[in-house]
Every structure is written in C-alpha cells, then in structure tokens.
Amino acid sequence: MVEGSFIDSGGHANNTIQIVEEVLDLDRAIGKALDFAAKDGQTLIVVASDHETGGMTINGGSFESGMVKGEFTTGGHTGVMTPIFAYGPGASEFGGIMENTDIHAKIYKLLFGEK
C-alpha cells in the first residue's frame, strides 16, 4: 500500500506545486508496482482516492516547461467523484461508479470469497 498523503494537504492549501509534486511521486510508485505486477501475474493493483480536495481545475500549462496552472474552488473537500483504476487479477471488480467504502469489501471477496 502506498499513499500520496500530501495531495490532500496541497488541496486544502490550494497549492498546485505541492499537488503536482506529490502526484508525480505517487505515479512513480504506481509505476514500480505495475512493473512488479506485470512480471508476477498474481498481484492486483488498485489506485483510488477517498475524496477530492480543493476543487482543482487545470486551466493551462506546458508539457515542455512542466508548468501547470491550477485554480481552486475551495480549501475543503468536494463532492466530485474520483476515479478508481485497477490492474491484475480481479481488476474487473473495480469498474464503474462505486462508493469508496466498497473497495474493502471487493478486496475481501477476492482474497477470501463471499462473506
């Protein structure tokens, strides 16, 4: 399990730089996990968020310079849906829209069968 915990605090502070740096760190960690899972063939990778913070919108930027222009609607949590991504055996359990609290039940089912 890996957490990009400073993404949330960056959203609360409306700090685009902190969010971008933390997302890039998380992306590198996920990349390593995906490399392992691809070789292993028995590892499920689930990438999820428990909520969105800050109401961040990307209003510009440049791939060449690495600059991102972010704007925020709040310093608190929002009701915006967040994506869930999965790779590996059982990944199909994580498609569509779901409550974040359902993730535990789905992982439990994959590990131990129906409750």
UniProtKB/TrEMBL annotation:
Picking any one GO molecular function of the record gives: alkaline phosphatase activity
- Kindly list the positions annotated as binding Zn(2+): D8, H12, D50, H51
Q: Which InterPro entries match?
A: Alkaline_phosphatase, Alkaline_phosphatase_core_sf
Q: What class of enzyme is it?
A: hydrolase
Indicate whether Phosphoprotein appears among the record's keywords: yes
> What's in the keyword line of the UniProt record?
Hydrolase, Magnesium, Metal-binding, Phosphoprotein, Zinc
User: What is the primary gene name for this protein?
Assistant: phoA3
Q: Which domain of life is it from?
A: Bacteria
On cofactor binding, the record's note says: Binds 2 Zn(2+) ions.
So what EC number does this one have? 3.1.3.1
* Gene3D superfamilies named among the record's database cross-references: Alkaline Phosphatase, subunit A
Q: What are the required cofactors?
A: Zn(2+); Mg(2+)
Q: State the organism of origin.
A: Petrimonas mucosa
Q: Which residues bind Mg(2+)?
A: E3
Q: What protein is this chain from?
A: Alkaline phosphatase 4
Q: Which PANTHER family match?
A: ALKALINE PHOSPHATASE
Q: Any keyword ATP-binding?
A: no
